[in-house]
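Input.
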Amino acid sequence: MTRIVLETVEMHTAGEPTRIVVAGWPRLEGATLLDKRREAKARWDHLRRGLMLEPRGHEGMYGALVVEPDHPEADLAVLFMHNEGWSTMCGHATIALGRWAKESGLVAGNELRLQCPCGLVRVEIGQNAVRFESVPSFAYRLDAVVPTREWGPVTLDIGYGGAFYAVLAADEIGLDVRTTPVATLAEAGAQITEAAAAAIPLEHPDAADLGFLYGTIFTDGDGAESRNVCVFAGRQIDRSPTGSGVSARIALQTARRLVRLGEERVFSGVTGEAFTGRALRAARVGPHPAVTVEVGGNAYFTGEAKFVFEEKDPLRWGFSLR
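Output.
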């Protein structure tokens, strides 16, 4: 009987899982990391579905595939996966990968230079605590008015932190990030992502592959401590505060002059666990003023696994009840 076996290391960051594929995935031949991402989508997406969806995964699963880098400064490269496809950046997984790389002996010191689809990310590794310096983040649109079928015109911002997000206070549509059921937030986020993607064309100066709206982040304001509830991949809820979303929010707060360079903010997710974020220095991305953001959080190991895909199993490539 023909079988495929994929080996993984299991981790979580603020409750959000990272399933790191360490063995068994077919070699990707693309010359660049974005080429490898296209190849993974075209040729091996059934493996992503099999790992992310039931019966091996669940509707909140997230994964990372470690591949060869093409960036001359990178130690490792990674492709990020979730229930619907392949992301361009993931902060919680980057934090997990930093700790995993150090404890696996893949990096000798306390720094990992990680090539992500959005660019090179520098990771500083402690014990549980990890910080990463992300690609330049920027405000793409402020106070954009988006028509929605349920709430009428909704005002939101579009920020980039390795991926594009629609960002708005939950009370803009009468919800509360601390008391509204997550299923309600997920439905609302999916609708707003769809509406914003239709209303606001997105372009990234570096690559066309980066020009899509990844999800919607609901907040409870822009104080020193606030909450991030990110809805992405349809109705998937990030358990963590969303690292790339923290980068996008810091960029938006910087653009609005609500935070200064070096000033730290704290963002909690639905589990109550927090990430920190601060703008380190000014940058530029094409026509957009930008900032380089440092994000910090804690990662923990939860296990190791060997996942088997049997040829005769009709559900070997996964299923979803959504």
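The chain has a mean pLDDT of 96.
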